[in-house]
Amino acid sequence: MPSCRIHTLPYSADPTRYFEKIRQAPGAVLFDSGRPASRRGRYDLLSAWPRARLVPSAGETGSGFLQRLRQAASSLGHIETPGLPFAGGLMGYLSYDFARRLERLPDTTHDDLELPDAQLGLYAWAVITDHQAQTTTLVCHPSLDGRECERLRRLFRTPPPRSTAFHLAADFTPDLTVSDYRAAIERILAYIQAGDCYQVNFAQRFQAPFQGDPWVAYQALRQVCPTPFAGYQSLDGGGAILSLSPERFLSVTDGQVETRPIKGTRPRGRSAAEDRLYADELRLSAKDRAENLMIVDLLRNDLSRSCRPGSVHVPQLFALESYPNVHHLVSCVRGELAPGKDALDLLAGSFPGGSITGAPKIRAMQIIEELESRRRAIYCGSLLYLDAGGRLDSSIAIRTLLARNGRITCWGGGGIVADSDWQAEYQESITKVRTLLATLRAL
Fold first, then answer.
1. Judging by DSSP bridges, how do beta strands 400-404 and 407-416 pair with one another?
2. CA–CA separation, 237 vs 404, rounded Å?
3. Of 91, 183, 257, 415, which sits most exposed with the smallest number of CB within 10 A?
4. Span 243-254, pLDDT tens digits
5. Which stretches of 97-198 are assigned E, i.e. beta strand?
6. What's the rounded Cα separation, in Å, for the pair 161 and 163?
């Protein structure tokens, strides 16, 4: 079996130093663990110049598109690369609205952002940084021409181009008035009281016109909000996806599956004492624990569609994780893929993540469609990579911005349950994005 060509590069704790060299290339994509400030993630991956781009065609079903992804990844051929998470395969995103291709859902929201439901590239090389081993490696699939591999090796040893600037042309404005937000929450509470659902994740959107380079914005954002499932994906026309997500969606390694849902949020305190108070309040909150447990149960059900019977379990429940702007309650659900199932089967049975829909999932998504006037686009979708050998890692695209057609868009939301207070929920939706918006205002 042919093996990958592996070239050692100088280790960098900050992946942006390498990504800067390719950020303007077609299909440039970065999966960013938030180092050196964030300590939870292990790997950074980046690549560009995909061999093929895959976007759903009009009328194509979700299962049909996922089968095309499966065929594209397998066309490279599986190459064992011990100790590395990727040796050629797919990188890209699925938008929240890709769910319309998997489930029967109403279609009433306005698609003013016009982002394709999915866009993934087939990549035959990647630069991978392993922060645990403190190594950075250029990995070239054997199907990649040797001259191209040598060009890349030289490229990553040259100085990066200079960054330009980024600034907002006006301040962010929300799509909803406070009274509109309150009316939507009251409608959700009425649905819950009527027994339609237990929980609905409702979000509001913020937009501003901008000028300049979204990469400059991303670099500033990751400095103030380092997270383990961050990412940057360039789009046609100079746009980009800027994600500072703290939440893993699905990972698959050697058939072992993991998802890490986040439910429960408090702001960081202005002093150490206030910070501990918020953290303790979240840990002990019966409402937030119940909300988290609802989603854990939903995800156990989703994973069971593709996992071996009896293998799905919950090794971690209600753990506290703290980030620069918020505390979160995080749980972990694991399982083992059933014989005959692969990572794309798991994705089809679980997308979009239950932590950002509600429960039961389909009814919650119907209510989201009714009450959110515009499509979510990348928000609550997923950034993911799928190795040709079946390894998958993916995020839930929260704390995520879309820079497209001269406007930058950000969303903030939360799970609404029977005892939710609309004012507290409104404040939480702002707390989650306050640091991101303030950072961009300051550029």
1. antiparallel
2. 8
3. 183
4. 999 999 999 999
5. 118-123, 125-130, 135-140, 166-168, 173-174
6. 6
User: Nearest-CA neighbor of 31 among 245, 331, 190?
Assistant: 245
Summary mean pLDDT of the chain:
93
Per the structure, the complete domain to which residue 146 belongs is given by: 3-254+336-440
> How do strand 199-212 and strand 5-9 relate by DSSP bridges?
unpaired
Note whether 306 and 384 are same-domain residues: no
> Band of the pLDDT at 322, cuts 50, 70, 90?
confident
Tens digits of per-residue pLDDT, 260-287? 998 888 888 989 999 999 999 999 998 8
For residues 61 and 100, give the distance between their C-alpha atoms in angstroms, rounded to a whole number: 9
294 and 343 in a common domain: no
Q: Determine if the peptide bond prior to 360 is cis (ω within 30°).
A: yes
Looking up residue 346, the CATH number of its domain turns out to be 3.60.120.10
Mark whether 69 and 47 lie in a shared domain: yes
Point out the domain boundary residue: 289, 308, 335: 335
User: pLDDT tens across 153-169, in order?
Assistant: 999 998 888 778 999 99
Per-residue confidence band for 326, with pLDDT thresholds at 50, 70 and 90: confident
Q: Model's pTM, two decimal places?
A: 0.94
User: Alpha carbon of 300 to those of 178, 287, 331, 355, 420: distances in Å?
Assistant: 35, 20, 12, 12, 24
Tell which of 335, 365, 388 closes a domain.
Answer: 335
The count of domains in the chain is: 2
- Count CA atoms closer than 13 A to 94's CA, side-chain side: 29
Give me the active site residues, please. Answer: 247, 263
218 shares its domain with 290: no
The pLDDT tens digits for 13-57 are 999 999 999 999 999 999 999 887 666 788 999 999 999 999 999
User: 């799970």: which residue's tokens?
Assistant: 415
Examine the domain organization and report whether 279 and 416 are in the same domain.
no
Q: What is the structure's pLDDT at 177?
A: 95
- Which H or E run includes 186? helix 178-193
- Is 347 in the same domain as 391? yes
